[in-house]
Amino acid sequence: MIEWTALVFAAVATLVHIVSALMSFRRVRRASSAPAPLSAHPPVTILRPVCGLDPFDELTLRTTFELAHPHVELLFCSARERDAAVPLVRKLIAEYPHIDARLLIGDDKSTPNPKLNNIIKGWSQAKHGWVVIADSNVLMPRDYVSRLFSAMRRDTGLVCSPPIGSRPSGFWAEVECAFLNTYQARWQLAADTIGFGFAQGKSMLWRKDLLDGAGGIRALGVEIAEDAAATKVVRAEGLRVRLVDAPFEQPLGTRSRPQILDRQIRWARLRRATFPLCYAPELLSGSVAPLVAAAVGAPVLDLDGLSAAALLAVVWFGTEALLARGAGWHCSPISPVAWLVRDLALPFVWLKGWTGDGFTWRGNDMTVAEPATGQGRA
Description:
CATH class of the largest domain: Alpha Beta
CATH topology of the largest domain: Spore Coat Polysaccharide Biosynthesis Protein SpsA, Chain A
Oligomer: single chain
Shape: elongated
CATH architecture of the largest domain: Alpha-Beta Complex
Structural class: alpha/beta
Number of strands: 11
């Protein structure tokens, strides 16, 4: 009985894995269809909070100035005049004098979320009815705005995009890609496909009057994570959060093992605090439990445990490889190793999500249990 139960679990988990990959692949392929003409989209204000400098910041911030959309206002937000990103932003503004761009400096500190506090001033000064909030490490293609609007429907209150890791340098950056791409983005796109989309703070397209009617930008401060608050605000209005069909890149560069684990634990604690019922089954979302179950159920198929687990691993990670290749996401010869390391780390990350409340965000000690203050960036 145990062997049959284990085998059924392994089969069902693998089927769900394959179906979620197929859903994601279909979404990304659908994005290749021609978007609506630029003239069909209204003017947009883009808010980009900055805090400190990362290796790819000049590249990612420069793409904001090179968008194809004809009517864009750019508002860069820094909490401090002496922030390392301020000279770079001023340099870029000077290089593109024909672009409507400004740098706003000041820190509101009216919510527990430091990133949100940084962009409050930008929200209040935005002159267009549509506002994009985008982290400074998002790489914007020229059709960035058009792709966001292409996901907008009558029942949509917010359009978002999960980050797709690109340009990794070193093994642990490969592991970061493994988390971001064929795991997190795959699950988010699949959930959105069945009508259960969640907001992601990396890129958010808002209809300004909708959020203003729900209490304004500070309404996103009711949760420690602004994207969790955004999801709840939109659903309270009877509307849906939708994701773009082809998510946008986040160049990674070099990563270390502590950086990867700390970031994943932070996100796990935020998910657990804001959507605990959705967080609970994450323990079973990787390959470890199905591989163990396949080994336990192997005698039913007249196989030894190691052979059954190896066969399932080929199917499981082969599916991820096909998705990554088909979607145009990063995939290298060591990606299968990175996917396995990711899945081995998932139970540890999941447990840490339940057993702690604190995390460090850009040098700020914060907690999902109590209000925190400070300045940071994802």
